[in-house]
Amino acid sequence: MGKLNVNICKLQMVYFFKEDNSFDTVEFVNSIHKQLKDIFDKETIPQLLQIPQNITDIPYCIWNDVNRSLEITKSRLDFVFNLTSTSSWNELLTMFNQKIAYSFTENKMIIDRVGLVSELSSPNDLHELLKKRVNIAEFNNAEEANISWIEKIEMYNICTYIQIIRNENEDRNKIIFDINGFSENKLSKQGISGENAMIKCKKLLEGKIENVLL
Amino acid sequence: MSYYNSILYDNCMLNEKKQNKYIYQFLILYDDKCIYAPLGANVTKSIFCKNKYIYINNLAKEMIERCENKNIQKQESFIYPRITKTNIGYNEGKRKINLKEFELIKPLSMNLSKARSTLDEIATLKENWNNNGASEFSENLIKKCYNILEQLPMEPFICPTACGSVQFEYEKKNGEYLEFEIYEDKIESYLIMSDGKEQEKNLYKTSEIKQMVVDFYG
């Protein structure tokens, strides 16, 4: 089979903090700002919001520009970015991972779980290309189809999600790989840093691209 | 569900910007309602409790006037929630208020209220809308524009043209300019780069448009 012309267009990096890991949120945001200020649009800055202590799932820090978004809650950090047509997802992910991990270390923060979600699209007809790899008759002939499956590889869940919409006015064909660590296998107990766990997710993503799409 | 314009004001007027720290008050303006959350106030707790918002119209109106009188810098915000429904409730002081349930907008998704309302207006234009023979716009074309708009990472400026297309425009302060002319059967793009070079290209997929916008704001 020939190589598919499929590109990663968006990546979401997620770091879950260890429970009861106390740290100075303002100092942490200051540190993240120093690390990422050359990446975000210079006219944007992180915004801090007053959140009650017991609320863990509403962000207390939000930083957005057109192609990047950072949200920090008491329980996790999410960094999402669009990829330009000339950027290397591998290099960007490595760089962002290093920068964010630096802030974790500087503020003595412990990461217990990571996740990496990638969205892929193709300038060609994804439906035709995927027909060769997911050869289910009902799926191949459908006007709209969604299919997903989960694998477990080395203590990571890998969910593959494929969406096909065969409509000339809508171009919503996409593939999503959601890679995340088992929640019960805390990284701190395994002696693995958040940075290294994200590197592992990156390698698993490379493997998925090769196995599913090449 | 409706979409609302939202504007975030910083709290310079209360002089609480601390050195090396970024502390902002939380003031959201919608088309007809306002939500205000001063730092440290009890109302803040209720606002950020899940699924609850409180608005205080009179106080918010006063804050807005103060913002506008002092010409405080406004920041267009596209991260704030869209309102799903309204309930009646009470705050801690037992004062009756309207609670608004909300849902968080996912990161990198846009508040496209202006663009949508412009497309709504374009859809209503009749034959000869420019008094110079311009045609009205077909339902298919408007629908195509909506579909494209939903997938863009940044809200464009939208305008109708006399040659039957709808134009999406982006412009940066350094003079870079990006435009898409959307017809029923084709899309034409036009780009002016920072060095003055121009590039024209025909596009066939929404994903190509989206990628050009992502690249433009690199």
Summarize the structure.
Chain A is α+β, with helices and mostly antiparallel strands and 214 residues long. Helix content of chain A is 30%, strand content 32%.
Describe this structure in words.
The complex is a heterodimer of chains A (214) and B (218). Chain A is of the alpha+beta class and 214 residues long. Chain A starts with 6 loop residues before the first strand and ends with a helix. The model of chain A has no long low-confidence stretch (mean pLDDT 84). Chain A has a 9-stranded antiparallel beta sheet with strand order 2-3-4-5-1-6-9-8-7. The radius of gyration of chain A is 19 Å and the shape is globular. Chain A contains 6 helices and 9 strands. With 218 residues, chain B is α+β, with helices and mostly antiparallel strands. Helix content of chain B is 25%, strand content 27%. Chain B has 5 helices and 11 strands, in the order βββααβββααβββββα. In chain B, strand 2 and strand 3 (34-37) form a beta hairpin. In chain B, helix 3 packs antiparallel against helix 4. Mean pLDDT of chain B is 63; it is low at 1-61 and 70-109. Classes of the chains: A alpha+beta (214), B alpha+beta (218). Chain A binds chain B through residues 9-10, 26, 29-30, 33, 41, 45-52, 55, 57-58, 62, 64-69, 71, 78, 80, 82-86, 121-123, 169-172, and chain B through 8, 20-24, 26, 37, 39-40, 44-45, 48-50, 78-79, 104, 107-108, 140, 143-144, 147, 151, 153-154, 205-208, 210-211, 213-215, 217-218.
